[in-house]
Amino acid sequence: MINSLQIKSLSAFTKSQDWRLSLLHEEQSDLLIWITRGQGLLQLNGSRSSLGTHNAIIVPHSHVFAIELGRQATAKIAVIPKEHNTWELQSPRHLRLRDVAEISELSGLLEAARREAAQGLPFVDDALLAHQKLIKIWVRRQVVDAPLQTKPKANVRLIAQFFKNLPLPDMQGATMADHAEKLGVTPTHLARASKSATGQTAADHITARLLHKAQSALLDGNQTSKAIAEALNFGSPAYFTRFIQQHSGFTPSQLRLRK
Known about the structure:
globular, Arc Repressor Mutant, subunit A, alpha+beta
């Protein structure tokens, strides 16, 4: 299956490594994350909110988010190549479903797509594209029917823009002061607004996203630590090693041995 919809379990998506969801980051695919059991916390659109069973998180590619889930949580995740631009949304959405019919419909759509991919029948890519369109229609109907939300508070709007700025090419390697300048506020104001909206400072978010990118590069690619350090704008390979060890408890080499 090339360039097709995939339906993954939570453990398959994270490769049984919680940080792949819990650290603030962006994905290069469009996602629908369907929580089928358990609770957690969601960082999205500049604010923190609770998660529970029968919550759906719609995340267009390149939008930053983080999800912390309890040990007993389960989820199904629809992963769609970004070039499909599946969701056609300006920002991610968090849907809390209550209607039994809507819950059953989404569960059925995801399970049908999973079975199609597993069977490996002829024309599977065409079939998965059809399943993808049905899932997209389900999402669009939910978004249209969603009640209008009240205007976010000023601190949430500020951090939502900060989240949007994080993946920008000209902000790679930027400090909190750089982000504050781009937003037209002081670093102190940005830190306080972030703490109020998300429970973490802007510096915490920058560090989390950098840690996610660093660990992903170490575990998913073949670049040397020196090359990764240079790509992520670390001052030196030694500083990169200290950063990884401080936040993960392991050196880059040790992390690679654990994968």
